[in-house]
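Progress report, Aim 2. The chain analyzed during this reporting quarter is listed below.
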Amino acid sequence: MTKKLRTIFFFGYLVFLACLLEGAARLAFLIPAVAKRLHANEDYTYVRNWVNEHKKFNVDAYYTFDVYDPSRGWRTKPNVRDLRVFDNKILNTNSKGERGKRDFPYNNNRQMLRILVLGDSFTFGDEVSDDETYSFYLQEMLPQTEIINMGAHGYGHDQMLILLREEGIKYQPDIVILGFLGLDMSRNLLSFRDFAKPRFVLERGRLKLTGVPVPSPGPVQPGAGAGCAVGSV
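Predicted structure tokens for the chain:
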């Protein structure tokens, strides 16, 4: 066999091995037990995406209207006014970062029924304007009530619970509605999504909060990968 043929054969063999590994990886994800194990460290994917976005746009959170929060990882900026987002939709937040312009006092005078709405991006209103969220429509249907939209995009139930404990309970709500989506359950297992976040773990039959205070965004080193430190205490 000539040297040229050996070279061609060698590179052909490398291509064959690459295709074989790719095919095996794709087939592995079709096996439930294997797929579950491979997805066990989903944090890796979110960290990698954050690092890439941070290096490209120098952002500390998923959206420009987010800010770092030591308890929940991120929250919506307060006092956002007529911001154009989601392909020309309108976003406003009140002085506490809740969707819409209206502020609500913590004290509940009980003259009106007060409903607090928790949830993820579907509750917050990704892709829609203030007057297109389901909380807004609920307010129109129930004019003699106060509807407080405390939805936050990307939140898991862990972050919603912390938000309820830290802020929601201060409003003394008569009713609390949870905008439940099954996909949020997987977020409860993550310690990193749109940014670093807290997580509850089961310890001796009780839930224990970990990862708090959430580290603030730190500098990303050139060429850093998902294993780099992306936060500083």
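The first strand starts at residue 66 and ends at 69. Residues 220-233 have pLDDT under 50 and may be disordered. These observations will guide the mutagenesis work planned for the next reporting period.
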